[in-house]
Amino acid sequence: MRDLRRRVLGPLLLAALLPMASAAVAADYAQAAGSSLVFAGSYQGQVFTGRFPDFSTRLTFDPAQLATSKLDVTIPLASATTANADYDTQMRGDAFLDAGRFAQAHYVATKFRALGGNRYAADGTLTLHGVSKPVTLTFTWTPGAQPVLTGKATVKRLEFGVGGGDWADTSLIPDAIAVSAKVVLKPL
Amino acid sequence: MSLHNSDDRWGAVSQGFHWLIVILIVVMAYLGLTMVELPNTPHKIAVYTLHKSIGISILALVVLRLGWRLYAGRPRELTGIPTWQSRIASATHIALYVLLFAMPLSGWVVNSSTGFPLHWFNLVNLPPIASKSDALHAVVRPLHEWLFWTLIVLACMHAAAAIYHHLFQRDATLARMLPRNWLRAPSTDRETSNA
């Protein structure tokens, strides 16, 4: 009887505990409808805004398991748009994003910090225009059946060689481009 | 030289407006006709910005000029000019004023239709006066150019008439739009010495 207990209950108990063990690893999510990735800058003192309509996100995240969390965002650039055809041609062209050579930007973050409340920061690396540099994304995490990540980052375009040479003139286009993300997530 | 217009002569203010706007139109014509071919660089933006800035300045000058013209009046019409010529001259003057308003305003609409900033001498951003629209742009962009060629044709007619009056009629039409003694115009000199 005692043998039986050891032989059967032991594995049973283990089997019962396994799901809890896997719950201790952060949950996986993919991007759901309603997500947006937008940017804003200014040109001759006039604000312009744009969006990356084809971006896609994979996220592994649990506020209690920041160490195993990971954010991975792929941003196709050829479809980046400001809703101004002249700007778009210029922005996607070789003086700026050069989407013909560098079709997409890639952001990967594996270091997460809790900022208090439901706010977090991801210290990741952005690869854009053939250059990889650290970029910090600060975000709010709204839990739920479909959690929502709402975040902001600042990308210094000149660090990435976006609009170099004559276009480096920051009185024309400032260095800092603001990026905002709202990512609706569905569990995988 | 008097600031005010007298019976015989245009005063310094009217002359200043007249010749300053002539110079600016020549500069604008050069910028406008050459800038469209420039490669897409910040230099092109700088040239466009200058063109737009001068254009807005001309609009302001023309408002002031018309105000001054209405306030200060004009010298007497010269005697001995056939009525039909006088009518053509008046119509040309009115058309030139209309074009001096229409050129910068249509340019402002062209700029508005593209959604580009209007950064006046890199100092201040002026608002658009029309909504961003490709359809509107397709209309006003050629309109702006046609108004320009109309202005050039009328301005050349106007200048040719003034030179004709000076050389062949030997009257003060041209001389009284210039500082005294720049051109000899016997009739004006006589009137002035009689006064």
SS elements, strand count of chain A: 10
Structural class of chain A: alpha+beta
Proportion of β residues of chain A? over 45%
User: How many alpha or pi helices of chain A?
Assistant: 2
**Structural class label of chain B:** mainly alpha
Question: What is the helix fraction of residues of chain A, given as a range?
Answer: 10-25%
Please, what is the average pLDDT of chain A? 91
Assign the CATH architecture of chain A: Beta Barrel
Main sheet strand line-up of chain B: 1-2
Which CATH class of chain A?
Mainly Beta
Biggest sheet of chain A, open or closed, and with what strands and sense? 8 strands, antiparallel, barrel
CATH superfamily of chain A: Lipid/polyisoprenoid-binding, YceI-like
Number of domains of chain B: 1
Q: Strand share of the residues of chain B? A: under 5%
If you compute it from the alpha carbons, what radius of gyration of chain A comes out, rounded to the nearest whole angstrom?
Answer: 21 Å
Mass-distribution shape of chain A? elongated
What are the SSEs and their pairings?
The complex is a heterodimer of chains A (188) and B (195).
Chain A lengths: L1 H22 L3 E5 L4 E8 L2 E6 L4 E6 L8 E7 L8 H8 L11 E13 L2 E10 L2 E12 L5 E9 L19 E12 L1
Antiparallel strand pairs in A: 1-4, 1-10, 2-3, 2-10, 4-5, 5-6, 6-7, 7-8, 8-9, 9-10
Chain B lengths: L11 H24 L6 H31 L10 H32 L4 E2 L3 E2 L8 H36 L16 H9 L1
Antiparallel strand pairs in B: 1-2
